[in-house]
Amino acid sequence: EDGDARPSVMLARLRRWLDEHPKWLVVLDDAIDPSILSSLSLPSSGSVLITSSFPVSEWEGKCGWENAVELGPYSPLEAHGYVIRCLPDAVPSYVKPLVTALRNLPLSIAIALGFIREFDIKIEKVKDTLLLDLSTQHPHLFHPLTPEQIEDQTTVHVPKVRSYNDLTPQAALDSLVGIILKELSKKGRAASDLLSMASLSHSSGLRRTFLQNHPVETHVLPGGTVERTGPDWGGLIDSLGQLVRIGLLGCGEGDALSCHPMVQQATRARLGTTVDAAWAALRRI
Fold it and tell me: Residue 137's pLDDT is what?
């Protein structure tokens, strides 16, 4: 109306329009956290449809909803089609083993796609690396390498899958997060440390925590040189952005960062995160 694009002003306009047009339907696609409903404070004259990768229990417990529907994993065809739509140049013969190894779980597939985009990695490399990690963590699911393959030091041989019947979606995500953490560690510890801290709770106000517990301190050194110590905010923001782009963290209400419970569990499984370790990680940033 007046060109003011501030979020608070735009939200006020939306509420006013909804009040004037009853029986509306608002769709919140891929919502991160139930807290978004209280922050929007929509009028009660319409309906809200929400899609989210977070468990049904999160929404039922915090919103009191009884009609939340859990859709479960993709069908093999849906998983394959989703990847091809996102990566039109992907070779179909690489897509099928990747989504199968990820148990067709939408969350895991979305994170894998974010990983591929962020690091510009070929889908076949992600597929091979994931299968190698799974074969190490769950060797009973794979055929052993032949003696010739073991002796061959010039080629990385990916074991052939025996069966995925005993592989849970969580175990598959654990391996995916594991290989992403290895790639992140090549660029420093900040991103892994942030993910460690986010894995401790559903929603972490990391910026607020940093400010309260690690304020910038100023010291005057001999000779009059001023030294300031505190978090590396530039590196912190870059790492947060990277984790959000990959899909390991989501932006919640205010300065909160949401970490999906399955990602939390995968991170703890790989890093053995404890409260003490997380605070030690925070001090390194």
Answer: 93
CB 105 within 8 Å of CB 177? no
Query: Average pLDDT of each block of 10 consecutive residues along the chain (285 residues)?
Result: 74 91 88 76 87 76 71 92 95 94 95 96 95 94 91 88 90 96 83 72 52 57 65 72 89 67 87 60 52
Q: What is the signed CA dihedral for 200, 205, 209, 210, rounded to 10 degrees?
A: 100
Q: Write out pLDDT tens, residues 70-107.
A: 788 999 999 999 999 999 999 999 999 999 999 999 99
DSSP letters, the chain, are --S---HHHHHHHHHHHHHHS-S-EEEETT---THHHHHH---SSSEEEE--SS-HHHHHHHH--S------SPPHHHHHHHHHHH-TT--HHHHHHHHHHTTT-HHHHHHHHHHHHHHT--HHHHHHHHHHHHHHH-GGGBPPPPHHHHH--SS-PPPPB---TT--HHHHHHHHHHHHHHHHHTT-SHHHHHHHHHTTSSEE-HHHHHHHHS--EEEE-TTS-EEEES--HHHHHHHHHHHHHHTSSEE-STT-EE--HHHHHHHHHHH---HHHHHHHHHH-
Q: Nearest-CA neighbor of 202 among 58, 63, 2?
A: 58
**Within 13 Å of residue 120, how many CA atoms lie on the same side as its CB?**
0
Q: Which of 91, 128, 126 is nearest to 246 (CA)?
A: 126
Phi, psi of 238 (to 5 degrees): -60, -45
Tokens of 227: 């030294």
Residue 47 β-bridge partners = 25
What pLDDT was estimated at residue 156? 86
pTM: 0.76
